[in-house]
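Backbone description:
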Amino acid sequence: MTLSETAPERQSQLGDPETGGTLVIELNAIEENFRVLTRLLPASECAAVVKANAYGLGLEPVTAKLANAGCRTFFVADLAEARRVRACAPDAAVYVLNGFSAAAAAAFAEINVQPVINTLPELAEWDAFVAASGWRGGAAIHVDTGMNRLGISVAEAAALASRLHNETHGFTLLMSHLACAELPDHPLNASQIRQFRELRLLYHGLPASLANSSGIFLGEHAHFDMARAGAALYGINPTPGRANPMRSTIELSGRILQLRQVRQGETVGYGGAWTARRASRIAVASIGYADGLLRAGSGSDDKRGTSAVIAGKRCPIAGNISMDLACIDVTELTDDEVRRGDFAIFIGEQITLDEVAESAGTIGYEILTRLAPRCHLVYRGI
């Protein structure tokens, strides 16, 4: 059974009659994407980034699936996420990207997770905690090589390198983050890789990690000892402008509540932004921007928005997407192809996450992280 099937027997199993949008999450596809990326890293480890509730798809089921598939290292944003990962992956290494704070110090030791040290004051606080507690769980040191976001400077990292002569230096990973990996020809990639390679020489013997999802596709010179896969695991294209090497992992759909006739010249939805150029038929689906279908993907007289797939055919959004509802122009479909109670698919194999994001003027990351809070969730492959 594929994600884009629309057979009535499938529809009866999908939706919850008490909710609007339905989000199907294919855990087997996430696992397959992990294996694809792992094969591209023959000499390096593939870690998983599961921050932001595994990019909105469910931290616990995604972590458990990846841990069972052999993933040994996970990255999260904060300690609350780290606790949840630890419960699902008791033997994995877990790194907290947003760093260390003295106020939360005891929690790192309690659940045995590693902070990513981003500043020298953080390092001083961490050293003080280690000295007082005797905890030897270790930490990653994050170096800014060009992102200008988090991380110590290259000069600061070079000055700290002599610390490795001490057997109790406490570092378990040297890492940086690529700013433009999705643009393979961007000069910042070469600059960051060069700087990181030079630092790695100073930190000889310490595992090193630079590549994100798109960085994996820059080639072995960007791989080092570990890559941190995030977006690609969840089906976002890590190679924009080229065919997506990753499997689609989700399907977002909404039940059709009503079919209505609209006369030529009449408008649809808030603001009257879409005008029927002919006598039209409109399907009203139980999904809106409160379900993560961004209003910026609306269709108007001046702009073609996103689409929905009904009976295997693409149909344009008509008018502004509202909080709970989306209108779809189904004039080209026959009575047998669209009926009240059917499902319209807004993201899936026939209409990709990246395409929907582009139509809304954003990126797939933002779309994914907005989908789950209100949708009825269906997990496959648990």
Notes: The CA atoms of residues 173 and 207 lie 5 Å apart. The two ends are 16 Å apart (CA to CA).
